[in-house]
Specification:
Layout (H helix, E strand, L loop, with lengths): L3 E7 L2 E7 L7 H4 L10 E8 L11 E6 L2 E6 L2 E8 L2 E6 L4 E5 L12 H4 L5 E11 L2 E6 L6 H12 L2 E4 L2 E7 L2 E5 L14 E12 L4 E5 L1 H11 E2 L5 H15 L4 E6 L3 H8 L3
Parallel strand pairs: 2-3, 3-8, 10-14, 14-17
Antiparallel strand pairs: 1-2, 4-5, 5-6, 6-7, 7-8, 9-10, 9-11, 9-12, 9-16, 12-13, 13-14, 15-17
Length: 273
């Protein structure tokens, strides 16, 4: 059977998807469409009656997250995604995605880039990303704390460009750390296919007064573990996460900023970056 092909460049990783039916491209993926000869990662999608049939009956549940469950059988990993009534199953080893034939395709929800990026010296973070001049700054915090607010303040008061509002990628390429916008942006609706030299990672907290301190050692590592989007179900993959994170922390400063939701927070941080 002839297969339809879709090529995407996400964090400068060349992702190719073959499908046995038309692949609608969601708005947030359109800027990430690319044209290349050879791919770094190749996925295959297949339309089936029931994606759950492709998880072995003896598989053990090893992780539960928002909209995602991970199963393991004989050392093989399966991701089960369920969002808004849409079910898909990813066989991680073969990179085969089983989609419900009776439902619209939303391929972005079935890609396992948080795992793939580890092979390219990178990680994904639950964070907003701004580009101010030639510097990239990542703001990380739990939902509702103020990632988008701080990014918007830098855009308003310092002319920064917001590259992503919820999930940024970080990679070590040719001896330097770069931060990337991604197609996944939560409710922010901001997903720009661009990169910037990473200058700082800032973990946010709310406060009536602005206070900033540089984090190091266990404090910085612990903050990264909370702010990252990692494959916690795999000891081998988490070992790789730790190695990448330790290298990142040895070269990029990390700050804790407790701040107000106004320009004074920008003024406090810019003295350090």
């Amino acid at each position: 059977m002839d297969k339809i092909r879709c090529d995407l460049s996400i964090a400068d990783i060349k992702v190719r998807i073959f499908s046995d039916r038309a692949l609608p491209i969601q708005d947030n993926l359109k800027n990430f469409c690319a044209d290349f000869e050879s791919a770094d990662v190749v996925y295959i999608t297949l339309a089936v009656n029931n994606p759950d049939d492709y998880i072995p009956a003896d598989a053990k549940r090893v992780y539960d997250g928002a909209g995602m469950t991970v199963f393991e059988s004989d050392g093989r990993i399966y991701h089960r995604y369920f969002y808004g009534g849409e079910l898909s199953v990813l066989d991680v080893e073969s990179r085969t995605i089983y989609l419900n034939a009776t439902r619209p395709i939303n391929i972005q929800r079935s890609l396992s880039l948080e795992t793939e990026i580890l092979d390219f010296d990178g990680i994904f973070m639950h964070a907003s990303l701004i580009k101010v001049g030639d510097k990239g700054v990542i703001f990380s915090a739990p939902s509702g704390v103020g990632k988008s607010t701080q990014a918007a303040l830098w855009e308003k008061h310092r002319g920064a460009r917001v590259l992503n509002g919820d999930r940024a990628a970080v990679r070590f390429v040719n001896g330097k750390w770069f931060a990337y916008g991604s197609p996944w942006a939560g409710s922010s609706g901001i997903y720009v296919n661009d990169s910037v030299d990473l200058s700082a990672i800032v973990f946010l907290g709310q406060s009536k007064e602005n206070e900033i301190k540089k984090l190091g050692g266990a404090a910085a590592f612990g903050a990264m573990m909370k702010g990252g989007i990692f494959p916690y179900w795999s000891k081998a993959k988490m070992s790789r996460v730790c190695a990448v994170t330790e290298q990142l922390l040895s070269q990029i400063p990390v700050y804790e900023l407790k701040c107000r939701p106004d320009e004074s927070a920008v003024e406090t941080l810019e003295r350090f970056i």
